[in-house]
Amino acid sequence: MSDALPDLAAQVARLALPLVLATASEVVAERAGVVNLALEGIVLAGALAAWMVAAGGGAGALGPALLAALLVGMVIALLLAALVVPARAHPLVAGMALHFACLGATALLFARHPALGSVTTFDQLASPWRHAPWIGAALLPFGLAALLGRTRFGLHLRAAGDHPAALRAAGGHPARVRVLALALAGALGGLAGATLTTVLSGTFVDGMSGGRGFLALALVLFARWRPLGALAAGLFVALLMTVELRLGADAARHGQGFAVFALRALPWVATITALALRRPDRSAAPGALNEPLD
Amino acid sequence: MRRAAPWCVAAGAALLALLLLRAQGLPIAAALRALAQGAFGDANAWSATLRIAAPLLLAATGVLLCFRCGLWNIGAEGQLLFGGLAAAYAGGATGAGSMALLAGALAGAAGAALPAWLSARRGVPEVLSTLMLNGLALELLRWLVTGPLQEPTRQFPQSAPLPAGAWLPQLGLGSTGAVHLGLPLALVALLVVALFLARTRAGVALRAGATAPNLALAAGFPLARARILAFAAGGALAGLAGAVDVTGVARVVDRSLAQGLGYAAVAAALLAGLQARWLALSVLLFAALQSGTAQLQWVASLPGIDRFGLVLQGLAIAAVVVAVALRRRAPPRPGAEPPR
Questions:
Q1: Total domain count for chain B?
Q2: pTM across the whole model
Q3: Is B328 within 8 Å of A108 when comparing Cβ atoms?
């Protein structure tokens, strides 16, 4: 038992890492008034980018890998921003388009370079840098909370999502702020993907984001559009998934098909149930979510 | 300038796609030729394209119906899976194709009614609930083909083959496979949905309710109930797509059911700009891309090139999105900046 608890905590933390980053990314995008439906594709593209840069490169390639994932995520989010802000496309439509493009492009690139080799993960490092992803992900929500709540840019970002007309009347630039917010969200989404390959697994598998980006879209509601809420929601769902994995392994060993199915379906069912039982609360949601700027 | 912009965007997307092909070491002219050959080269190619087009058109019609009513149903993939599974079960149990199709449509409708109800009564965004149900449906498929629906010998992760009585009538085209009844069925569905949206009181009220719910409510239209019904009808069409695919082509259910067909339906509806008159063309284009890229893979022996279609799907929607946005003039409003 004395060993089991830290072991459990470690597994929860591992599953929470990408979820917290992805949810934080979506919090930033939605607080600025744009739902980023391309998040799943961004996570996947970030995972692939980090893997392609880090594969076979040893420990020294980890930094460039994170940077590559960050930049790829940012570029995709800026494409979304270009479709949504100046071209006034509906964010859900534009996000869907980019999601498809990411899905196809990652599968295509992966099929062309299937055997790049494995990545030296952060866990395998000997230096104190091995703790960097964990410390970074734990501090990030606090940093974002400070950014949103205490800075002028954060004020403008929230205004762009709540009441862009008021921001404009006050001399701000809602369009510019939304583009910047999406760039930040894209960077975080790309990093969420990078953790899949450089922290958790050390290799890339086609479609390895496995719906985490979509799950993050729902977690934003439980996080009540707050960065610290993203930390809590990510940890809670990771706990659920840990229980599922452990029970699932047991059930599979005993050949219980339905139990395996029930456990694998648990995140989806639990999320729908929780969404249904949640008291609908419009006050927490950004006021001008998905509304185009004038 | 304003008029030329959409075409520039479309040309830009096409150029980007071609450059991507070139970067993969494929001569562009040969690639395009292989693509066209695989999609429309001969009767067999046409047959393969139309076999993909039939369920795609059914599901895309359902998506179009929902989107036009302001319902963000991106759960066609899940509804298609529910429909295919139900059709396989009902077809196997009764041996009748009509029962298989009916079961498929009902299962799809049920899979859509839940998010519709949750959205109307509990304020759950349907984007999220339909996405979650897509994940659930995939897990359900994986379980059923290794559990209750598995073939009797328990050797393979697939259902028992459907009895011949449950097969969809074939219309005949090409030798490798044939076009089945699903295609005329889909065209009729598209016509009915187009007429419903354009010509009936309920259709007009539903469309108005998408942008101005108060207007529809003030006119005494039962908007909430109509939206649930429209959502369920869209799901029924997606479920029917799954049923048609199972009973018309594979005649067995394994893990390859759907495989993104429901997402492609969303893409096709968006590419058509949610206009019913463009939908058949847009579906044909995506079906051709899918059957064409399969040929491309065979000719060029480039692994993964079949995924190229997905990239094109995304680029095509993005191009249409921009084109539509650029052509739409912002309505004049008091205090708004004059257009530049």
A1: 1
A2: 0.88
A3: no
- Is the Cα torsion angle A286, B266, B135, B294 positive or negative in sign? negative
Interchain contact, A261 vs B124, CB within 8 Å? no
CB contact under 8 Å between A276 and B333, yes or no, is no
Which residues lie closer than 8 Å to B94 by C-beta, 6 or more apart? B100, B166
Chunked in runs of 10, what are the mean pLDDT values of chain A (294 residues)?
A: 71 93 97 95 96 87 94 94 86 88 86 80 86 92 96 96 94 95 98 94 86 91 93 92 81 74 85 84 80 81
Chain B positions touching A111 (Cβ under 8 A) are 303-305, 307
Range of the domain at B93: 54-272
- Is residue A71 within 8 angstroms of chain B, CB to CB? no
Tell me: domain A4-277, CATH 1.10.3470, correct?
yes
Let me know if residue B67 belongs to a domain: yes
ipTM for the whole complex: 0.85
> How far is B59 from chain A, CA to nearest CA, in Å?
17
Count of residues making up chain B: 340
209-268 in chain B: CB under 8 A from chain A: 263, 266-267
| Residue pair B136/A265 in contact by the 8 Å Cβ criterion | yes
Question: For residues B237 and B185, is the Cβ–Cβ distance under 8 A?
Answer: no
Domain parsing of chain A, residue ranges: 4-277
User: Is residue B234 domain-resident?
Assistant: yes
A258: chain B residues, CB-CB within 8 Å: 143, 147
Min mean pLDDT across B45-59, B150-164, B287-301 is at: B287-301
| Chain-centre distance for alpha carbon B60 | 4
Write out the H or E segment, with its range, that includes residue A171: none
Per-residue pLDDT tens digits for B66-102: 999 999 999 999 999 999 999 999 999 998 989 999 9
